[in-house]
Design brief:
With 554 residues, the protein is of the alpha+beta class. Helix content is 30%, strand content 28%. The C terminus is likely disordered.
Length: 554
């Protein structure tokens, strides 16, 4: 399960009269700090004279006092964090008093972040009236942080604020918007992971008197202030408001939902895609997107209705008690229902089925729309139907030979193409696994084409150092060598990205569709794909038709 958090906030701009410190070159102190590191981070007047024998006692004393004033070591002679910074950069923080303009972003997840600072005399006027009283709390909080490096590309200067209730003014005309992004994940071991840093990007205005050179964009990483714990936040957010009846279950780590609250797609894929509005996320106060949240039946009654529905969807035309019983046994052990007691559910499903025994057809014919969509894609024949639900399980390894053999077993005609539909193949390890799958297909038959329908967006989000176009080109370059045809979902206008994962096996006479809730190429746990009669995501065919237009014309 992946959770993306987005917050749109404000970069506040303040003109203040205060004590501050700015970085300045200090090659002498850099040398002394570097020497102190070799002495286990300790230094004193005697050791300074030992290192520099030409110095007098008075000169060594002055150097030691200068280091204390500069903050590179303590009076006890212990090297500080600033001292280590000076050893690396050759700069020290020099205290000053005067007028300063600062740009600050503040959010509970990051704490106050000093983005930039500069002396006021060289900046455009702010047109704000200074005052002494009622200073914003953020000015005191920003003074408790370590020195911050300016984010402007032309500046590498470090600043530290020492606010002591001086004159201040909020410069409204130079405020700007900033977007904060964060990612949480729930891994296969049911362990929560929150990224250690948050991505922040925006624009700084009021930095230059020349308007053409003002409005500098920035992107930076902010440390996690540990004010948000994923498990607690999710449990809180998904237990109130519209989730009061169907809540997040802290033991199951998924959403228990009433059957009548599930839409058609959710009933089949067993996961939920959910968007939370800013007023639903408490102190985060931003949008939260939850992908692939596990769904569970609310209680045995809802489980029974859900399983009955799935049986009806997977049985085509007339059926037998043996077939129904086989389907029931397969579904009852599936993840949405496995946490409940089997006997209770089985009895309830039998009761529901018995109540509709007069209708020997447990399901209707496929809808006309789905039939037309499928036939537009499948050339020559309709989908092949096995007598019961067919499950193919991959063990999570990097060997896909057995899996490919299973999905192609008994296919009529000559195999032509195997299509993979999966929007989450973006990490190098995912691509490596897909390459192994493609190799297994080619080993089965050299004449088989391997087609991949995926999305480049997850890779673009991961590659923040590249532009969108460059990230897309880099992604295509990584994936394209491992397939005969590569389609990106975002290239099909007006079509939603398929949520579920699909394996489509095509021959000269038939096509098989296998559906799975989890990607075949992530993690080392087992993945189950089931043969289906119809695809409940009609937009899938819009994506795949891009590749079949020439074939259809021919």
């Amino acid at each position: 399960m992946n959770i993306r958090l987005n917050y749109t906030g404000t970069v506040d701009v303040y003109d203040i009269n205060t004590t501050y410190a700015a970085s300045a070159k200090a090659p002498g102190l850099q040398r002394l700090c570097g020497w102190a590191i070799t002495q286990n981070g300790e230094i004193d007047e005697a050791s300074i004279r030992e290192a520099y024998s030409q110095l007098s006692a008075g000169a060594a004393r002055n150097l030691f006092e200068n280091g204390i004033l500069s903050g590179v070591w303590t009076r006890e002679g212990s090297l500080t964090d600033e001292g280590h910074e000076t050893a690396a950069t050759g700069e020290v923080m020099v205290k000053e008093v005067g007028l300063l303009r600062i740009w600050v972003f503040d959010h509970p997840s990051t704490g106050p972040v000093l983005l930039h600072a500069d002396r006021l005399n060289g900046l455009p006027t702010g047109d704000a009236t200074p005052q002494v009283d009622n200073a914003p709390e953020v000015l005191s909080r920003i003074s408790q942080n370590r020195a911050s490096t300016s984010l402007l590309s032309s500046e590498k200067k470090r600043w530290r604020i020492h606010w002591e209730n001086g004159a201040w003014a909020s410069v409204e005309k130079y405020k700007s918007r900033a977007e904060l992004q964060w990612k949480w994940t729930l891994n296969d071991k049911n362990e929560w992971h929150a990224e250690q840093t948050l991505s922040l990007r925006g624009t700084l205005t009021g930095t230059n008197k020349n308007k053409d050179q003002d409005g500098k964009t920035f992107r930076t990483q902010c440390d996690n202030a540990f004010e948000f714990e994923p498990s607690e936040c999710i449990a809180t957010w998904l237990s109130q408001g519209r989730f009061a009846k169907s809540q997040w279950d802290t033991k199951l780590l998924g959403m228990r939902r009433r059957f009548d609250e599930l839409d058609t797609t959710e009933r089949h894929r067993w996961t939920l895609h959910l968007d939370l509005d800013p007023d639903e996320t408490g102190d985060w106060a931003g949008k939260v997107t939850i992908e692939d949240m596990p769904l569970y039946a609310y209680n045995p009654e809802d489980a029974a209705h859900w399983i009955q529905y799935l049986i009806r969807e997977h049985v085509k035309g007339y059926t037998t008690e043996e077939t129904v019983e086989q389907l029931l046994n397969e579904f009852i052990t599936a993840s949405p229902f496995s946490w409940l007691e089997d006997p209770k559910i089985t009895a309830k499903v039998h009761k529901l089925l018995d109540s509709s025994r007069a209708d020997q057809r447990l399901s209707k014919l496929l809808s006309a729309g789905d039939d037309l969509g499928s036939m537009a894609y499948i050339v020559g024949t309709s989908q092949r139907r096995s007598g019961s639900l067919s499950n193919v399980i991959h063990d999570g390894s990097n060997d896909y030979t057995s899996f490919v053999l299973a999905v192609t077993q008994g296919v009529d005609g000559q195999l032509k193409r195997i299509t993979v539909v999966d929007r989450f193949i973006y990490h190098d390890q995912h691509i490596k696994k897909f390459a192994a799958f493609s190799t297994a297909c080619k080993e089965l038959n050299d004449g088989i084409d391997v087609r991949l329908l995926t999305s480049g967006i997850p890779y673009q989000r991961m590659s923040e150092d590249f532009s969108e176009d460059d990230a897309r080109k880099k992604y295509v370059g990584k994936v394209k060598p491992h397939c005969d045809e590569l389609l990106l979902m975002e290239s099909t206008k007006g079509a939603r990205a398929p949520h579920n994962r699909y394996i489509i096996v095509e021959s000269t006479t038939e096509a098989r569709f296998f559906e799975g809730a989890d990607t075949l190429f992530q993690s080392i746990r087992e993945k189950r794909f089931s043969m289906i009669d119809r695809v409940l995501e009609p937009d899938l065919f819009k994506h795949l038709e891009l590749a079949t237009k020439k074939e259809e014309k021919a």
